[in-house]
Amino acid sequence: MGVPVTVGVVALDPVLEAGTRTTLLACPDLTVCEPGDARVAVLTVDRPGPAELDMVRATRALRHSPAVVLVAGSLASGDVLHALAAGARGLLPRRDADAARLGHAVLAASRDDCTLPPHLLEQLLDRPADARHAAGGWSDGMLSDRERSVLRLLADGHETAEIAQRLAYSPRTVTTVVRDITQRFRLRNRAHAVAYALRAGLL
């Protein structure tokens, strides 16, 4: 076992905060600390509205720029897009946020990987392209086949090592592809890239 990942909890409701902390304390690979000292912050909300999305941005702006995993009482496909664009790297409905799933999402976020519930991913992919097209001018020719393949697997919830194995690339190549996309389109992270590609109808 390696060094535990530090994780903090951010919540407006002290009951939600206490419950989330208790869940995280049951994860052996995690160490719970203050959000400002954490590598990952779990933000627990009822519904990701504008104020909650501002909390995602504010949490990302803390001292160590923690990755954010958003846990919400309810999540719709539109909420997912907005949360990813705000900087979240993982999303879970509260009903699914047991120790195993939440721990997995936190560990994935610490590696800059993104986790989405399968049913929400299906809703995103089932939306018509014109309903998703709000990504600042992305067009079909702006992504190479390799970039599209990597983003599609990211959207499916695969992590860097899994993508490398499936596409017969090295993990470093996968990381480079994602970095090139985020830099070229001035995106925050790989989750933001997936969100924008989905919104543009490119995946």
Automatic annotation (TrEMBL):
It comes from Streptomyces toyocaensis. The keyword Transcription regulation applies. GO terms for biological process: regulation of DNA-templated transcription. One of its GO terms (molecular function) is DNA binding. Coiled coil: none annotated. SUPFAM superfamilies: C-terminal effector domain of the bipartite response regulators. Residues 136-201 form the HTH luxR-type domain. Pfam families: GerE. The keyword Calcium does not apply. Keywords: DNA-binding, Transcription, Transcription regulation. InterPro entries: Sig_transdc_resp-reg_C-effctor, Tscrpt_reg_LuxR_C. This is LuxR family transcriptional regulator.
